[in-house]
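Continuing the batch. This is chain 6 of the set; chains 1 through 5 are on the previous pages. Same settings as before, nothing changed between runs. Recording input and output for traceability.
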Amino acid sequence: MHHGDVTPQIAQGLLALQARIQAAKIPSSKLDETINVAIWNIREFGNKKRTDAAIHYIAEILGQFDLIAIVELRDDLTDLGRVLPILGEYWDVVYSDWIADAGGNNERIAYLFDSRAAVFNGLAAEVDPPRAKQATEFLASQSFWRAPYMCSFRAGNFDFVAITTHTRWGDSIPGRKAELQMLADWIDTRFKDKSVEDRDLIVMGDFNVPELGDPLYAALTSRGLQIPLPLQNLKAGDQVIGGTNLEKTARYDQILHLPTVPANFMQSGGTLDFFIDDAHIAELFPDKKYTRQQFSFQLSDHLPLWIQIKTDIDGIRLDQIVQDSRKS
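Output for chain 6:
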């Protein structure tokens, strides 16, 4: 991390933030053995200009992980450009184009990663809804408001595809459920195809699912996606919480996978509580007197969700070869 010659106030804020990070108990990753993956909805990142303090705090949080999927990144990449130099020269980013209509909300999706821990494998594409021929055109009968974005990565000897999405909000629960079902169906079809890039899949995002087990969650997981065991009972450090919103009540953000090698996802996971409560806002912004809403436009109204993934899978593969030979 390269915070440089910051003001005494920012330095004091960083020390307070580092204490909150330590309380999250995020284990260090080990090169070629494990990787820490996170999803973070950074509220209107690029639309609401951040203070210098907020940029340093965002960089400090991002730097706890090796690969971060970011949603609500806007068309203006200025603030992302302010964060990258603080993270350091090894960090890189792959991001989608923005969608300019009201449904798209000028949002992008980005994958920010430490190239010492993960490398980009070459696949970068939006997920398109199924099309059918109508007259001379091939048209979709429904849409993703914001197209999910997928990229392929390699960490250790573990190759995987990541898909990240920010599901529609609004008053239409049936529309949101249909969008989640369409994503689940698309994944089921695509990842059974013989030409798929890799069958190890991580699906992340802000799915706007209030709680596990409701009809929205059932649609999302109807084709085999699962929450890794460390994330089923969500914790921030030692504290069990109800969700990743600042109120800690809603499970909007999720990391899911198709369990081809479930043992890879058994390490640990949770969320990083950079907020705590309203009384602790002044520790990070002592001169601002921010309300909770104002604070959320500087950091976010979502906490990052993370999981540690095992990336040294040679032993698992060799064991599978032996087991398969005994069956034949």
